[in-house]
Amino acid sequence: MVAIKIVRAVNKYSDAAMIEIDVLQKLARNDATGKHCVQIRNWFDYRNHICIVCEKLGPSLYDFLRKTAYRPFPIDLVRELGEQLLESVAFMHALKLIHTDLKPENILLVSSEDAKLAENKDGSFSKKVPKSSAIKLIDFGSTAYDHQDCSYIVSTRHYRAPEVILGHGWSYPCDIWSIGCILVELCSGETLFQTHENLEHLAMMERVLGPLPRHMLERAEYVY
Predict the structure, then answer these.
(1) Would you name the residues annotated as active-site residues?
(2) Which residue, among 104, 113, 108, has the nearest Cα to 135 in the 3D structure?
(3) Rounded CA gap, 16 and 202, in Å?
(4) Domains 2-55 and 61-218 share a fold
(5) Domain ranges for the chain
(6) What's the CA gap between 160 and 116, in Å, rounded?
(7) Residue closest to 146 by CA, chosen among 181, 216, 179, 99
(8) Looking at the domain 61-218, which fold is it?
(9) Which of 37, 70, 120, 134 stands 20 to 30 A from 87 (CA)?
(10) What confidence tens digit (pLDDT) does each residue in 105-145 have?
(11) CB 106 within 8 A of CB 5
């Protein structure tokens, strides 16, 4: 069984698809066991639609959360997922690659099977959890090499690091920030920074973490 990602025949999407293919092939060459990231099998062009053939995996963490009404994951499961996320991102960073778009939608469970966890006092089963905690990263269309221009906006809003919002440019730490946001979301069942506006986003960060360092504010390219 395989999964096929079909990319619309639009130049910007086709360009991103070719970047993704290049990254997937690089990852495959350096990850013989296929432990960290989805494995590419092949790719082809069908009537100007780039088609990427990969191994078939299970649902995303986002899909699993949605299916279970956004109920928080058990803390032990979050710990296991966090360890794998950090290992996978460390693997990419060692290859001088920055994912730039880590979010629950781009983290897939390896298996589609789930199990039930007893959490009621009478011993009845009422909470579904993944049967296996094994995960892999997907969606490398926005992945950047560390020597590339890093002045443009990256990351989906809710997982975007403060240096990106302030216009400092970005590097490997933006992936680590995203992981932190993801783990809090898995623990709580709610997006940590639920906003679509920069000033509010920064204010929410300060509410959680305290004031942003002065040196970051003084270097900000954008003033809010």
Answers:
(1) 101
(2) 108
(3) 29
(4) no
(5) 2-55, 61-218
(6) 33
(7) 99
(8) Transferase(Phosphotransferase); domain 1 (1.10.510)
(9) 70
(10) 999 999 999 877 756 555 555 578 898 999 999 999 999 99
(11) no
* pLDDT computed for residue 118 by the predictor: 56
| CB atoms closer than 10 angstroms to residue 195 | 15
CA nearest to 34, candidates 124, 134, 145: 134
Report field, pTM of the whole predicted structure over 0.85: yes
Span 2-55 CATH architecture: 2-Layer Sandwich (3.30)
